[in-house]
Amino acid sequence: MRFPRRTPTRNHTDGRPRAKALVGIGLLLACGLLTAWLVPASPPPSPSAAPLAGVVGRVYVTNQLDNTVSVIDAGTNKVFATVPAGTAPEGIAITPDGRYAYIADNGSAKISVLDTRTNKIAATVPVGNKPTAVRLSPGGGSLYVANGGSDSVSVIDTRTNQVTASVPVGVSPVSVAISRDGATAYVANSGSRSVSVIDTRTQRVVRSVPAGRSPVGVAVTPDGESAYVANEAVATVSVVGLGARAVTATVPVGEGPFDVALAPDGSRAYVADLGPGKVSVIDTRSHHVSATVAVGPPGTDPFNLAVTSGAVYVTEQGAGILTVINPKSLKVVATVTVGTSPYGVAVSP
Question: Signal peptide location in the record (predicted)?
Fold first, then answer.
C-alpha cells in the first residue's frame, strides 16, 4: 500500500532518521503516525460555495494516489470530470490557450499531455527520474520539468513533444519558476539549499543563489527583481534579490511552508503552510506576513497553490480537497472534494 506523500523533502534534509530516546515511546509514536496516514484528516466545515464574481475557466488538480486529475468549473466550484493520468501525478501546467495540460507523472518518469477538449491523454514524453514540477514559458512553447530524482531539468518543445535539453541543476529540484519575459528559469533545489538560475536561450545554469534549508517552492515577482523561496525545514520564506544574487530578507511563516505563489500584480506572496493548516500572506513591499488564512486543522496539509486575480486555490493533501480563497476578503469561500492526496493545481483561461 502506498501512503500519501505529504512532503517530499521532509525526511531527506539530512539523510538520517532521528534517534528515539525510548523504544517504547518510539513505537507508540510510530503507531500514531501510521494511524494518521491511514485515516485521512477531516476537512474544515464547508463554507458557502457561492461562485466568486468574474471567475471563469477551469481548475485542474492532480490526485497523487488515485492517478487522476480532477477538472473543476471555476465558475461553480464543481467537479465535472475526473480524468485518468499517469502514475503518481504531481505538478501540472496549462498552455496559455487552455488547449493542453502537462502533468508530471512522478512514478513513471514521464510527462502526460492531456487534451483538455477530449479529457484524454494525447501523448507521453519520457523525462528524468521522479519529475515533480512543470512550468511553461510565457508563450507556451517550452516546458521546464524539475526531475527530483535526476538532479536535472528537462526542456520540452511543446510543438513536437520532444525533449530538447537536459540541464544539470542542484540536488533534488522540486519546483520551477519562469521570469515574465521568459529569459530565465529558477529552480529550487531542496537538497542543496540553493536556487539554480537557467538562461533559457542557452539552457545552461548561469549562477546558483543560496536559499534556506530545504527550499521547495519558488516564485518570481512580475518585475523580475526578486524570487520568493519557501524553505520547508526552517519555516521561512527567503526573498532573493536576483540582481544582488543574495537573500535580502527572511520572512518567518508557519511550520512546513511548501509552496509560494505571487498575486498577478506582485503585491502579495501566498505561502501554503503544511503544519498549521493555513496560508500565510506576505506583503511584498514590507516583507512581513500581513494576514493568515485558516484552511483547516493540522493534518489537512495545504500543499500547492495557484493564484489568479479573482481566486486563490490551495490543494489540501491530507483532507482530499481544493480550497478556494477570495483574495479581496481573504476568506475561504468554497471547499471542493477531489481525489486522494491532491498535489498540483493549475488554472486554465
Answer: none
